[in-house]
């Protein structure tokens, strides 16, 4: 059984009156994830987004997104903005949302029922790899985990037009990871914990590639069989289904994220 991120009774005590328990849990997990990204230097000032799908009015799909204008270290479970798939806030809020975040995230949440959590960043190593014609080279330890799991989407400019949404969705297809060419990284997964895990793997793969390709000498190539086996090994390494929560929980503790911070 996976240990909860925070004491359940203490978490319940700071839940706003009238808020569904499942949404409050989603808010705590998402706010904690923003804090972890901030602690690790994966944040892009007030830009980029991590979103989580929740239930809106009358069961309509909605999602939580960071309030535009705050850096990741200022995000709390309370100030996350709940929006519908058209990007309209579903409650009173002192903050707006970034349109680029709405265009990308609403498209994926609407099209992929399995995409409970979507992460998009401009991590510098990720952007560097996104600028290379070959994209992610599948020849390091982390990249091998992603064998067959990475999609690509061509750059069309800053993503502010809803006209690009069908093409974003088509490019992603059924894959959990996408490299936005000349732009950045994206992960779409079934939980905050699994999205964090696969983002960590993707970011690590890009970081190692940037370092390795900056060094003189030939890069050792992995065989197709070795890459495929590595990917299978990772997929089969979690028979109890608790690997992702364990990794995410450890990351939250390492970052020093507390329930008091998230409930502020």
Automatic annotation (TrEMBL):
One of its GO terms (molecular function) is actin filament binding. It holds the Pfam family Aldolase_II. It comes from Rubrivivax albus. One of its GO terms (cellular component) is cytoskeleton. This is Class II aldolase/adducin family protein. Residues 28-210 form the Class II aldolase/adducin N-terminal domain. InterPro entries: Aldolase-II_Adducin_sf (IPR051017), Aldolase_II/adducin_N (IPR001303), Aldolase_II/adducin_N_sf (IPR036409). Belongs to the aldolase class II family. It comes from the Bacteria.
